[in-house]
Amino acid sequence: MLSHEVVKVYPAIYKERKSIVIENDRLRVEIVPDIGGKIVSLYYKPSGKEWLLDSGSRPFVQPIYGSIFTDWDMSGWDECFPTINPCTVHAKENNPVQLPDHGEVWSLPWNCEMQDQSIVCSVRGIGLPYRLTRTISFLETGHVRLAYRADNLGQDQLPFLWTAHPQFSISEPTQILLPDSMRSMLCVYGGEKLQTGEQYDVSSYLNIQPELREDGKKFYYPSVVPAGWSGLYGQESGNYLIVSVPVEKVPYLGIWIDEGIYNDRVTCALEPGIGYYDSLEMAQSNGTSVVIASSKSHEWHLDLKLGQGSLEKWS
User: Fold this and answer.
1) Which of 75, 215, 81 shows the shortest CA–CA distance to 159?
2) What is the pTM of this model?
3) Could you read off the pLDDT of 273-308 as tens digits, one per residue?
4) Cβ count within 10 A of residue 18
């Protein structure tokens, strides 16, 4: 945090659910522990910009474990762990485990603690023996830091895949910001116009309009990313958001654009991730999942920078 800014952490209510807020002079972040530790608000005070999509007309209720992600609120920022796509994994010999859609933790209640300048939330796995912990705090640089730790609570090795799943609201013409070296990307969901499995120069797909088109698409950078940042820039308001990760810890990036194929409003998810791609079963087979030894842990983090101004201002 900046030296003059006071951080406050306090309980609140969000859509009739208990929530926790952490805020300073410029930023306000709110989570709902009972619904997957979901971040429901990422608010930049100087411009009044709310970056996360709310549930709209969808009920904001506790999801059923093992259900389909798109049947629920489709809002805010969820964590996908230990997989995204449903799959079968063999964490223990001759003992296959079925993992549900978008992983386990988005549908489970999390335990959360309010500390002086942070919110610490954790959740334990059902299909696999782990504890995932996420700590939200403000850095002196002005960034929001999401620090993660996965603990293997079992006797066998624990494989996992993780990605952030923020549903950023596209309420104005918005540019996806990427390093120039990352413009060639693999299409993993083609929607109505693109071919799944083909690589595209995504330069012509980086400008998103807020109008619904009943289409969607998803890209992955097809190897370890050369740079650990991506972002969004509102072309009318000048609001920007930059997501940055350490490449050595979080080496992959997916971009999901929903123009009304699943959600009722346009949204974009910038998805830095561990494991390539989407299915833990696939990541195990191609050697990109992380494997944690018994009683050991693995840590990583993600930083967010919010602001308003020219594209040069955030660099």
Assistant:
1) 81
2) 0.96
3) 999 999 999 999 999 999 999 999 999 999 999 999
4) 12
